[in-house]
């Protein structure tokens, strides 16, 4: 089974959003800090399932969202996000990325949403007839507002969905996770509850034969965020849930050693290399060995980070 990373543009984020969670970086800083930012990729993932066909994990952003003032006009989103937050070249739209692999949006009948933030659901409108799976807690909270102001699900982005499929995690224990959900009943695509970044944030464990891929959405921004006691994103929800989810992913990684971690926004050397190696849908033995070597030189056995790999801001 092949898995392809689909780069759907990039987004500008404050450095502190990704790395300031242990340094007192606040949501006020998030809104007002316009000097210390980084550009990070936005990745969705295309799974080619042997029976179910193409399955999409997240949908990235849409061209409409890059016309920020028009798309978000009159909503709180117009003010808490930047006009130039998104960059989406024509050859990186979801339609263009699918076409590169021989698909049209109408070919996709199954979509998994890791969470409802804008850079993960912006192109949902391309898939109005698909079954859209997401954690039940995320579905139930879709009309809620963070801090009573910012909608978890921006209505114009999620309104096109006709077939919501809320997921209840009632399946087998896997690694550090007490429960799971086998999406198709064949053990190839398994959903895992990783709340914290959002109420029902969900990660996807894909059995690709010689290895498994853990698609974390934003439960981890980068692989370095596994070192949760040293590298932590700011949280809009329950930080204790976020930390617990990361520790469960650490546990999974120890107990299931063939797992390769993939996030949506990993701008590090690791993220760039793995995305490039997966361009043909599979990781070679050489690529797998490189991933293992990177992890060994990045973390100790307790997932403490090598000081040489602590993140630092590079304005360039």
Automatic annotation (TrEMBL):
Family of this protein: Belongs to the metallo-beta-lactamase superfamily.
Stated name of the protein: N-acyl homoserine lactonase family protein
Matches recorded under InterPro entries: MBL_superfamily_lactonases (IPR051013), Metallo-B-lactamas (IPR001279), RibonucZ/Hydroxyglut_hydro (IPR036866)
UniProt domain Metallo-beta-lactamase: residue ranges: 41-265
Keywords: Hydrolase, Metal-binding, Zinc
UniProt cross-references to PANTHER family, sorted A to Z: 102 KBASES UNSTABLE REGION: FROM 1 TO 119443, QUORUM-QUENCHING LACTONASE YTNP-RELATED-RELATED
Organism: Nonomuraea helvata
Entry-linked Pfam families: Lactamase_B
Cofactor dependence: Zn(2+)
């Amino acid at each position: 089974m092949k898995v392809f990373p689909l780069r759907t543009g990039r987004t500008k984020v404050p450095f502190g959003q990704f790395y300031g969670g242990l340094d007192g970086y606040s949501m006020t800083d998030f809104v007002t800090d316009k000097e210390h930012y980084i550009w990070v990729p936005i990745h969705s993932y295309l799974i080619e399932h042997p029976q179910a066909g193409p399955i999409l994990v997240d949908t990235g952003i849409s061209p409409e969202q890059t016309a920020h003032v028009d798309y978000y006009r009159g909503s709180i989103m117009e003010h808490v996000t930047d006009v130039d937050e998104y960059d989406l070249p024509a050859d990186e739209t979801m339609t263009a990325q699918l076409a590169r692999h021989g698909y049209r949006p109408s070919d996709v009948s199954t979509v998994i949403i890791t969470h409802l933030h804008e850079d993960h659901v912006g192109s949902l409108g391309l898939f109005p007839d698909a079954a859209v799976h997401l954690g039940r807690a995320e579905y139930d909270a879709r009309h809620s507002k963070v801090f009573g102001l910012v909608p978890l699900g921006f209505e114009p982005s999620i309104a096109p969905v006709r077939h919501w499929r809320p997921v209840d995690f009632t399946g087998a224990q896997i690694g550090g996770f007490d429960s799971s959900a086998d999406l198709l009943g064949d053990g190839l695509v398994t959903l895992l509850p990783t709340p914290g970044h959002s109420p029902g944030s969900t990660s996807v464990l894909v059995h690709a034969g010689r290895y498994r891929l853990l698609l974390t959405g934003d439960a981890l921004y980068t692989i370095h965020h596994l070192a949760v006691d040293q590298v932590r994103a700011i949280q809009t929800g329950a930080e204790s849930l976020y930390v617990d989810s990361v520790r469960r992913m650490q546990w999974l990684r120890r107990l299931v050693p063939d797992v390769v971690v993939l996030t949506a926004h990993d701008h590090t050397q690791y993220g760039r290399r793995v995305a490039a190696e997966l361009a043909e849908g599979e990781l070679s033995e050489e690529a797998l060995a490189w991933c293992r070597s990177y992890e060994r030189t990045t973390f100790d056995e307790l997932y403490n980070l090598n000081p040489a790999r602590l993140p630092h801001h590079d304005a360039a």
